[in-house]
Each structure stands twice: as structure tokens, then as C-alpha cells.
Automatic annotation (TrEMBL), chain A:
Keyword Transmembrane helix: yes
Organism: Sander lucioperca
Record-stated family: Belongs to the CDC50/LEM3 family.
Primary location class: membrane
Keywords: Membrane, Transmembrane, Transmembrane helix
Record field: transmembrane: 31-57, 321-342
Localization (cell): Membrane
InterPro entries with a match to the protein in the record: CDC50/LEM3_fam
GO biological process: phospholipid translocation
Top-level taxonomic group: Eukaryota
Membrane listed as a keyword: yes
GO annotation, cellular component aspect: endoplasmic reticulum; Golgi apparatus; plasma membrane
Entry-linked Pfam families: CDC50
UniProt-recorded name of the protein: Cell cycle control protein
Amino acid sequence: MGKVKGKSGPLARRPDNSAFKQQRLPAWSPMLTATTVLPFFYLMALICMLLGVWLLLTVQSTQEIKLDYTEAGTCDMCFEKRKNVSNAAQICTCTVVFPIKKALKGDVFFYYGLQNFHQNLRRYMDSRDDAQMVGRKTNLKNPSSYCEPFMKDPNGLPIAPCGAVANSIFNDTFTLTYHGSSGPSIPVPLLRKGITWYTDKNVKYRNPKNDNMTLAQVFEGTARPLYWQKPVYELDLLDPTNNGFINDDLIIWMREAAFPNFKKLYGVLYRAKQPFTKGLPAGNYTINISYNFPVQYFRGRKEVVLTTLTWFGGQNHFLPIAYLVTSCLILLIAIILTVVWWKFGKNGKRLEE
Amino acid sequence: MTWRSPLALVRDALRGQRAREKDLRNLASNLPYEGLERAKQPNCYFPGNAIKTTKYTLLLFIPMNLFEQFHRLANIYFVGLAILNFVPVVSAFQPEVALIPICVVLSLTALKDASEDFRRYQSDRKLNNTPCLIYSRKEQQFIKRHWKDVRVGDFVKVVCNEIVPADLLLLHTSDPSGVCHIETSNLDGEINLKQRKMMSGVCISDPEFEPESFNSAVVCEKPNNNLNHFKCYVEKPNKEKVGAGIESLLLRGCTVRNTDHAVGFVVYAGHETKAMLNNKGPRYKRSKLERKLNTDVIFCVILLFTMCLIGALGHFLWLQALPGVPPYLVPDGNGHLDSPSLSGFYMFFTMIILLQILIPISLYVSIELVKIGQIFFITNDIDLHDEGTDSRVQCKALNITEDLGQIEYIFSDKTGTLTENKMVFRRCSIMGTEYAHKENAIRLAVLDVPESEEEVIFNQQPRPPRIGWSLDTEDSNPEDTRHHHDNRRKSKVTGNAQSDAAFSSLLEAVVIPDRTLLQQISRAESSSSSRNIDPHLDFFLGLAICNTVVVSVATAQRQRVSGVSRSDQTSNPLDTLSSLVKKSGSRQHFFTSWQHKPKKNRTISEDSVEEEDHVKPPVKIEGSGETNKLHTCSLHAPSQCDKSAMTPDNLSYEAESPDEAALVYAAKAYGFTLLARTPDSVTVRLPSGEDLVFQVLDTLTFDYNRKRMSVLVRHPITKEYVLYTKGADHAIMELLATPYAEHLSGKQKNIAADTQYHLDGYAKEGLRTLCFTKKVVSDKAYESWSVNRQRALAAIDNREELVMDTAVQLETDLSLLGATGIEDRLQESVPETIMALREAGIQVWVLTGDKTETAVNIGYACRLLEEEDLVINMSCGNKFAFTSMLDCTLEEVRRFSEDPRNVDTTQNISLVIDGHTLTLALSSDLQKRFVDLAKRCRTVLCCRVTPLQKSRVVTVVREKLNVMTLAVGDGANDVSMIQAADVGIGISGQEGMQAVMASDFAISRFKHLKKLLLVHGHWCYTRLASMIIYFFYKNVAYVNLLFWHQFLCGFSGTAMIDYWLMIFFNLFFTSVPPIMFGIMDKDVSAEMLLGVPELYRTGQGTGEYTFKTFWISMLDAFYQSLVCFFIPYLAYQDSDIDVFTFGTPLNTISFFTILLHLSIEIKAWTVVHWVIMLGSVALYFIVTLAYSAICVTCNPPSNPYWILQRQMADPMFYLLCIITTVVALLPRYMFHVLRNSIAPSPLVKARHLDRLDPSTRDQCMKMWRSFRGIAQVKPSRLSTPPSPTLETPVDIHPHSPTTFDIMWDERHH
């Protein structure tokens, strides 16, 4: 007798007496009562408060200058001109003067901004061919049907780059000039290259492989987008690494903005030379605009933004304020809970009623 | 194969169809036609024995499976959406990608179906290829073939321990008495052997069976699934008809035992066999929660449509407000722009596609998975495992686990459910004299007290001398003894498992005879010259003969005793040896345990000494003993003692109904030992040691209409035809007559009256009563009757009625011998279970076929009724009286409960109603009032109800009160009730498996109900309810992100999250945690739930998953999605962020919010929780990062390339993640904290107690219960219940209803 009762024994169908099968696994069961969560609430309030203050101080040190040039300065003339579609081909340039009262220190970023421009419309967003932009030759000559109706021009030639996004590229150009309190006007040097995501420039956008062919030859047999003044291979004739599909402006435009009011990077202040080594000095500035992009069809506005950045992005007061408000809210709740704790659950007796 | 015209094929098919549909089938032997082509054979229309349970074929799998799957509405919805996506004007995503979800769901389900089907195919193939023996005319012998080759009309030979391949009409067995034993455990789980008789005189069977001589036609009924019923007759060439029933049918799936071989004629094969017809798949019921869920899904649909309408309208208005045609408005291929209204119309459909996951399709799949997990845990619960039968709880219905947590009414059967259905002989009355069997009562009373005492009492047995040689094993295993101490049931297992006898536990087998009765018997034996004269002897003969008990020798081989002469098994020394080892093994436990408790032993033995003041020595041995042999020897014929080859000790009795076995054991205790039973004879050993062989002429089996059974035997000495009848008292008493002894008529009447008086007394004690009668049938009467009987047996129409009529014809003019009282002991922990269930707010009703008195008594015993309860006894003959009675009672009860004096008491009202009155109460016009009354009663006891009434009661209560009902029962008579209730529970007990087969859950003990409901029911319900609510929340919270974005993109249907990531989000990242939550979360520990049954109430009624909780979680979802969308939006406003770079942190934030929301809801974190939660987070980042790194142009319009990588390098991302999740979860967190602190629910309190250390917790638990219990204890202190008005119109005492009550009642009105 006294044999070991194995699985083949008389109780073969008896379930295993393991903690898992018997649902007796050791468990941590936190109780959400005022008593247990109070420290956590105070801690959270403190953390949020500190973060909020820190962020606020950081944001305070940034500077941003926004300039709506839609109808500002001499641009009202151009604005009127662009109202009429028949004048689309005519060149219009205008100038806006603005002062910078306090120097922008550090890296200064030059953005152009558009309001009410819905780059995030589904049909608009879809109207592009990434495969074409990544340099696949078949797609170059045979763009995706998503590009309709900007797939082929009236002559039946495939459009490169195809689609509504590329077609509607923002084509105003800017030159910024600094008028110091003393001395001559100095054009502000802007870096217009290397402003894209590294991966975009090097992976997502490639020109079709050209075996010793010029870019123009590669793109032969394609048409430029309807609204464009020049073909894609002439976007930057000086720099082959900024021409064709890998043109920085094109790449930046092709990254569709999330909201109808957005800005896009135009350039970064080149700080190698005086007086811009420390940023943009205070003084008067003029901005020369080649005014091409019509905005009246969508009641849009165009603007130029000059800003410095912080470690967590541009000048953004929302986040620090949100942190501070949240911190106050948590603190308030914590105080309420303290009262509750005081009145109800101070010694846990209530639970044993 | 010869070519046959299609017309002939069609004709044959039609003919075959007709042949199969006919009510009667004409079958003939296949042998004369052997070798002919199939179409020419007489039985060709009936299917072969090959079975095919697979649903699909290899070729047609895909279309059939798809067809099957599209029966689900959800899948159609899915496909509809996918198709919608192929319409260019409305497509929201790439059409090909939109197919992914539906493909995944369909293929997963198809894969599951395919694997299941393949398993079925494999088992089919295995079964079909099992070898068997079929007679072949060519070979002139049985040749080895496969199961699949068996056809209707074949002769199949089955040897011992083989499984029967098809339903066989038994024609020949190796046993000279023409008996074959089968074990039907494969079929119905009953482990006792059943006897099957061969059909005699149908074909030549001596000495060797000749199948070729079989030239009769077999006419049988259309196949049905009734395992206990079969009608057939064999028509011989000379037109003589011989009838046969189930007793000659070997069912497919049974195992042949104890019979060397048997030959049968195949009547049904393959799918037409009874076993296959009974083989239904799992049952599908829809749970209450699921029904509720479906209404919420409809709310979701409404919500979806509202949101889509908003989108469509918004798009229309936005387009209208545009001053011109901006460059971002893309015209179609022809450069044409749709009108705003048309675009708005299209946008509606686009929105449906975009927001589709608002309808939680994956919820259904998840619920199924969760239920599989829950069932896994239920079936693996060791507490629900019964060691006596080694059976776990079985879940037959796979999708109503959560209903277990919402039960409000339990309807229970009594016999076998509340009680053991292990009958113990308690007392008897013979010829009007009562024999109280006090010693036996004491023995049983001692057994009732906890287990240690039970062992002690067995220690009083004098150690039989032969045990000595097994001494060496005795002390070897002290641990085993301790083990034995732990569990009393287990001791029975180890002791009895080997004996394999169904009903021979020590408890039943041992009866201590009554001293006076013993003396009476010995006096009768010695005095009476002819034994039959003394009714005492007749009584015991009746006890031993009038039954269907099968005798077997208790050895491992289950050898059957088929005749005295053939008892060679016992002479096999090896067998005796092994059986003795086993016996001594079981005794060893008692012996060792005795050494642990000498003190207790002492006291008890003293007691018994006191009781047995002047007992003479032989009886004393008997009083303690197990060995009847000793008794018979000592009392009468010591010289015969060693002569007997068959020791009665070795015998064990297997009966279909346990009270039969109890009676046989009782007879054995008095020396009337049933030694063997064959269909034709019964061997009984008399106290004198003489073996009498009675020839059995007929057995009139028990049925529910007659409520009695009879055995007609021929007495070997007097050569008289004697009919022994036993039955329920009311079924017997009216058949009594006194022509048998004219001069005794007065005395006989007295006997009847006295016996009736004793019977009533037994019933009040809660005993089951049976009357025994005898009738001597004259030769002439017998002859004429037997002709009738033969005719009735051969009939195929109305056979039952005819057979019953013949039985009734014979069962008249009986003379009463006496009556027995058998105790059906309560199962262990029944009172505790009922108390706990009641504390849990469940009303327990008992529906029983027993007498009112018996039922009321059991009611008190199991604390269904309490002493201080007000018991309303309703028993009424006519409807008018009952109506007024009901009204009156209802009025009183209402007044009683509204009476302010009764507010502080919890005096309970219980209702006892009998079957006849119940019929009135359930009539359509009184139903409402009755239910109203029953609602106010704590307990309702229905006595003498028929199976049909049981289901009526359940249906009426369920429908009128709209409550969740559970029915629990163990017998075939409970099947209808089990099926009528929301949850049917079968107890796999002594009465076969019919209840279990009809049930949703099968348990083995009533006490398991407590844990099944209170713990598993509660868990399953809370888990599933929380999971479902969470699922709704999750989908709404996530989809709304997309919806809010529409306000910023001109309602154009843009998704800012990559579509693949959206699919992954639902498919991988957030699917496992809620499933794990639904399977494993534990709000309160099992100990706590068992300790405080009140906690169960949380699930009753609507429970946690209500309209309110649903909408609160919806609101929360809206709030959270607003926060998750607008905080990032405001933070990124006016920046140069692009759509997908904005979507990625949104996705991440939403992911964290959803997971953290779940972790607020998770009540207990185990390792599994941690692994799955952290695993999900890891999976999210790994998969998203990998996807972002790989996918350059894989999903054209959207492009997640390198976005998350950049985001994770940006501190802004983390700042946003922190603040957004904090703000999103703050309200819920605070709500939980405040609710738990200010107004904690009982569950929260219980959780709090759970955290204390065990001893403190137990104390608190006791305090809690006593706090509730005060109210329950209080009324007992009050001397009189404050209900002066209630006493008159209704019966307060549970005495038997008399017409007086009712008459008074009528006058009252």
C-alpha cells in the first residue's frame, strides 16, 4: 500500500492543485481609498507644478514674431492681382517692413504660415504617389491612380510629381533684409537646405536613378504639375542635391500639415557672419516677397514667422499652463480627499461596520 | 459497378427515404443475400455503421465554412463595410487594407473550425476502423472486419470487454441462462452493470449458435434517442411473434462484461444507433448579460449613425461655406467637383467606414475567449472535484457562465440532490408491529457527527481473525492515515474503489438487526412447520426477491454470480486473496485511527454498552458487525458455516434504484441473503443456511403510474405461484383485499391501519416508505394471465399500455406483509449550503415527488424551513375553495409584511403546497396571485409534483417574476425542469446521467453549488460585466479621436493614424489585457465570497452591468477622447506638425490611457497581469517602431516612416503623454477613490477585509455575518410571533392537510 498517487491513480481526474489553476496566485490588490492615494495625489501635484514652472520659464525665454503679409505693406496690390485667375502667370513682388524690438537670440527659424489651408483633407492627402517620389522608375512614368486628376497632363504625359499635394505647392519666396540702426542694409542669410527630416531627404524622397544622365533627361517624358511655373528638375539648378524630388521645399510641403492653420519651415538663420552670430539683432527689417500663392479662394491668410525654439518645441504657452492648471486641480482634489479621509476613513473603522 | 439509369437511382433514393421514414421497419438477415450487389439486399436502405461526424469535406470546406460564418450578423456587417470601401467615392482607407480585419476574423474562425473538424475526422476514422467480428456465410464463421463494415441485418459477435459496434438485438450469449451483462458508462455514465436477456426460441442456439438458421423477420420501430426504450418483435416463418424490448438490445458504445461472448442481430447502425442519436453537441444558450449587451450594441449603432450624420452634415456645411475652389479641394478624374450635398451624402458612408470599430465586433470574439478561460478555471477547481466519483464539474453550456452570478431562484429536486440518494434501512413494520431498529439508528446517528467519530465506531468491530496475515502492511503508512482523517469520503474511496460496486458503501451495507425482530424470526423459523406461513419470513423473502438487484462478487474483475453452481470464482485463491487484501486495507485505516483517539472510543463504547444492556453474545457480534456469515452460523446452523463456498461477504449488490439495494442489505442482515439472480431464477439463502432457488416467472417493472413493482415467482417447496409486490403506500393500500384469509379479515384490517399509522410516522421522520405485499396466485389464474401477458409483450402498438394493463390485472387482492422506512441521508453540508444560498439572496424552492410530511421533514433537516418560520400549508381539492384560500392568504401575508410591528423581525413565511393544489395554482387565472404569494415567501416546498409540473413551476416563476432561475436535479424526472430554467444543473449521482446530459453544468454534490454560484458565479459575472463595459469604453474612446479630428479637416474622413497601426491597436496592443481581465481578475477572494454570501447579491437583478454603468462609461469615453485629442491639439497648434506625426503621439497617449484605465479597474494584480500589461506596452513600442522603420511606401497615402522614432526623441512627446493620461484618468480615479472612501459597497468592504491577515479577517467576517444575523436570530427570542391574524385561515403547523381546513375556509367567506 502507500503508493504514490499519480495521475493514473484513483483520482486521475482531479485537477492540479496549482496556484494558477486554483486562482490563488499571489496578487497585489491596491485599494483606491482616500487613505492610500493621498500621498500619490500630493506627489503628482508637486511634480506637475514643478514641471509647469520649469516649462513656463523656458517658454518665457523664447521669442516669436508673426507677420501676416496677406495684405500688409505693398502686398495688398498683389493680393488683389491674385484674385483674378487670368493674372496667375504675372509676377508680383511686394515688400513688408517690420521692426524687431528685442533681439532674437540663438537659432532663429524662418517659417511661412498658412491659415485655413486644409492640407489634411482626405482626398487631398491621398492625392500623391510616394512610390514615384522614392524614385521608382515605373511609377515615374506611370503614377498611381490616387493622383487623379493630377496624374497626367492634358497631353497624356505623366506628371512628376503627381497629385494635388505637389500641384498646390506653396510658391511664395522671401528675402529678408536687416536695416541696422547704423550701417547699411544687410540681407539676412538663411540656410535653405538641410531643413528637412534626415530620413525624408535620404530615404523617402529619391530622384530616379540616373546612370550618368542629367536630371532633365531622367525626367524626360514627364510633365510639370499644372500650377507649377517650372519643372521639378529645375527647382534648384545650382545644387543637384536639392533638385528634383529631393528639393527641401518640396519635401517640406509634401509633409501635410495636421491642422488648417500651420506653418512650415522656410529657412534657418545662418549665423556665421556678423551681426547674426548671436541671432537676429533688434532693428528694422524688410521682407521681399514674390507673391504667387493665391489665398482668397479659401479666405486664407499668409504669414511669416520668425522664432527661436526651446528644447520642447516652439513658443507654446499651452503646455506649461496646462501643467500648472492640472497641478492645481490635483492639489484641489487632494485637499478634498484629505477632508474625506479626515471625516470618513481616518482609521478605517467605517469599513468594518 | 454496373451502370444504372438515373431514374432508377432516384427511385431507389425515394424508396430508401420512405423505408427510413416508416414507423415500423422490417429487417431480415443479410446472410442469404451475401455476395449480391447492394441494391438487391433487403436492408440496403438503412445506413451502414460508418459514422461521419465531420461538418465539412476537404473540397467544400471554404464555401461551407464561409456560408456558416455569414450566419453571424457581425460578419455580414464586416463584409458590408469592406465592400463599401471598394466604392471609390466613399472609401476611407485603401480597399485592400480594409479587407484585413474581416479576413483575420474569418480565417481565425475557419482555422478553429477546421482543426475541430479534423479532430472529429480522426476520431471517426479510428472508430470506424475498430475491429469487430461479423458472420460470413462464405466462411461459415465470424470473421474479423471493421466497425464501418457492419450493416443492418448482420450478425455480430462481441466478446468480453469489447465495445458493441452497433445496436444489436441479442440472440445468443455464452451464458447458459441467456444473459449478457453490459456496462453503459460510455453512454450514460452509470457504472453498474446491466443485464440483457437474449431472445429465446428465435433461432437454434444449442450448442453453437447458427446465424444461418435465423430466417425470421425483425420488425422494429423507427430509431429514436430514448436509451431506455425499444420496441420490436420477431416474426418467425410460422407467423409467431415474439416481442422484445430494451432488455434484449445491446447498445452501441456499451461494453460487454462478464460474458464470454454474445451474438446479436444489427437493428440500427451508424447514425441511427441510440448512442449516436443521443450524441448532441454542446448546448447554446444566450445569457442574460449577452441579451443586455445586444441592446447596448444597438445604442452603439445609433451613436455611430449620429456621429456619421454629424460628419455628413458638417462636410456639407463646410463645403458650402467655401468662397471658391481652393487648391486643396480635389476634383474627380474629369476635373468635376461634386455638389456639397452629394459630397455630404457620400461622406456619411465614409464616416461609417472610418468609425466602424465603434460597433465592438471584436467584443463577441473576446467574450467567447473569456468564457473559454472562465470554464477552464471552473472545471479546474479542486473544490468542485468530487473524490467519491472522481468527477469534476462539467460545463456543458459554454456561454452562460456569468448567469451563475445572477441567480435569484433555485429550484431543487430533493432525492439525490439534497439527499445522498444512498438509502439506509432504518426501520420496518411487519404485520402491524413496529420494529424500531434502535441500535441501527444509534449507529447512523454516530455517523452523522464529524468524521473522526465515524472511524471510531468502525473500530468497535472485532477484528476478524483472518485479517492477521495482512498485518505487515498495516502500520506502514501513518501519513495515509492522516490523509484519511482529512476526508471521510476519501476513506470510502480507498476502501471501496476496488470493489467497484455501485451501492455497497459500508453505510448502506451494514444494518444492525433489531433484537426483538431477530428473536421473532428465530421463533417463527423454529415454530412454523411450513416456512411460508409466517409472514415475518415472507416479508424478508419479499425484501430479498422483489427487486431487480444484480449480485456480483466484490472482486476487481467484476465477476458476476450467475448461479450457485458456477461460483468457481471464489475458489480461485488469487481472487479471494486480492479481495481480502483490499478489505483489510480499508479496515487498516480504522484500526490505526483508533489508536489516535482512544478516549473518544471509550466513551462511545460505553454508551453502546449501556444501550445493549441484556444482549446475548451472538447478537452482540452482530450488532457491531459486518459479517453476516457469523450471524447465520451462530444463530442456526453452525455446521454449515464452512461448507458454503460463497461467502455472503463477497457479494455486492448493484441496483438501479438505491433503495432496492438497501432493502436487500436489510434482508441480508436478517439472514435472508440474496445470492444470485438470473432472469429466470433467484437464489436466496435462508437464515437456516438453506439455499432456495425461486423460479422467476415474470417481473412487473416499476413505473411512475403504478408506483409499484412486482415479481412473480414459483416457490421451490410449496410450488405455489407467489407474487411479491412492493410500492408506495397509497398505491398499495387500495389494492389490499382480504379473500386470502376470511377469518383474519378483522385482523388484516387492523394490520393495514397499524401499518398506515407507522407509515405516517416514518414519513414525519423524513423516511421513504414502501409497503410489501404478497399474493398467492392460483395455477389457473396464472395460466390465463400469462397468455395475456405474452400477447401484450409481443404487441408493438400501445405496448406499454397493454403491458401495464396486464400488470394491473395481476396486482389485485394483495395481502399486506409490512412496510419499511428507508432513510435517504442528507448530503454533507446541505444545510450550510442552503443557508449560504439564502444569505446570498437566493430563494430556494424544493420540488419533490415525495409525500408532504417527508418533504417538510427534510425541509427542516436541511434548514430550508426554520423552527420559527410561519409555514403555510396549502392543500386543496377544488378550485373555488383554493381561490378563496389563496386570496385570503395573500391578503394576510401582505398585511403581515406591511405591519409595522413586523419590521424589525425577519420572521419568514414558507409555503408548502402539494401537486394537486399546484395544478390549480398554476392555472392561468390564479397564476399571478400564486406567484405574488410565492414571491413573499422565503421558501416554497412543492410536494408530490410530476416532472411536468416541475417545469411548469420554473417557467411560471421565470416569466412572471422575470428573474434568473436555476434548476438543479439528478434524475430523469428533473430533465424538463433543468431545461426550463435559465441555468440547468445536473447532479451526476446515482440515477443515471439523463439530468446531466440535459444540463448546462454538471456537478457531483449539492454542496458544490455554493462555490459554483457564490464564487465562480460572482467572479464570472463581475469579470465579464467589467470586461464588456471596458470594451465599449475602449472602442468609443479610441474611435472618438478620429471623430474629433474631423472637425479640423473639414469632415473629410481623414484618419491621422496609420490604418495598419489602427488595426494593430485593436488586434494586438489592446486586445489581450481585457481578455485577461475577463478571465483572471478577482475582485474579492474566494474565502471572502464563501464567508460572506451576501456579496453575491451584487450580481442579482441587473447587477453591475446596467444602463447606468454603460452610459457612465460612455461619457467617460467621450471625456477621455476629448482630452486625448485636444490637449495634444492645443499643444501642437500653430506648429509645423504634420498629420501622422500628430497621430502617433495621439495613438500612444490613447494607448496608455486605455491601458491605465484598465489597470484602475483591475482589482488584483498577479504575475500574469503584470506580464500581459507590460508585454502589451512592449509590444506596442516594438511593433510600432519596427513598422515605422520598415514601411517607406508600403501603405501609400499614409506614411508612418520614422515618425515614432523622431517623436520618441522629442521631449514634447513625453510631456504630452504624462499630462494627457493624467488629466484623462483623473475623474475616474477620483470617482473610484471617493466612492470607496465615502460610500464603500459591500464588495469594497470585503476587499478591504481581504487585505487583513487571515485570523483577523475571519473575525471580521464573523462580525459581519452576525451583524446581519442579529435580525435572523431575534425572532427566536420572541416567544410569540406578532402575527395574531395569521393563524386562522392557514395552517401554521406542518401537519397533513385535512378537509377541515378547507371547509372552514369556505365558511369563512
